[in-house]
Amino acid sequence: MTDSTSSHPPRNLPDATETTQRRLSASATSGPSELADLRMRLHRSLRQYSDFPSPGILFEDILPLFADPLLHKSLIRALELQVTDSYGQKQTPDVIVGLEARGFLFGPSLALKVGAGFVPVRKQGKLPGPTETAAFEKEYGQDFFQIQSDGIKPGQRVLVVDDIIATGGSAAAAGSLVKKLGGTLLGYVFILELDFLKGRDKLDAPVHTLLSSQEERSTKT
User: Fold this and answer.
1) Residues 70, 162, 165, 207: is their CA dihedral positive or negative?
2) Catalytic one of 41, 139, 200, 216
3) pTM of the prediction?
């Protein structure tokens, strides 16, 4: 009896490089429209709380984006598209640095999507081993961020991520830690921006925000 595999050999499979290039091309074509759709879906799912945590503050709650698995998946996909659209295929980051604490919610997942490592920046005293330290100002005084000294290797391309950019102090401190370790700071990515606080003025690398700020949203309603 003739072996069916030998008598009917499989059709030639496409080259792996060719397949990857086709996917990248398709992603580049569909990226902008897909990202716009994802942004609208994510916008609708945010919650706002007046006078929290103090009077006069309108608190933006991103936690609903993680409570629903489809929204969570949409968020990570949108961030992936934001990164690839902003930096292209040749400037993708080697390391994603996430700020304590909400940068930990999506930083590792984004790192996996873009093929990067993840390194946390934490409050002083939270990390073991040798660390580098940077100070930043908060409304109630000075605070400190730390990163493990071997977290970033010289020359690695680094992207700093967090949920919201407000005054920009904590993000600026994280950026300074990246540079202390010899990393190349590509920029910053945030889910939301409170642009009336002008936090991006404190940052010395490109700033990318996935969703519009409170000020922008209020003009549309």
Assistant:
1) negative
2) 139
3) 0.82
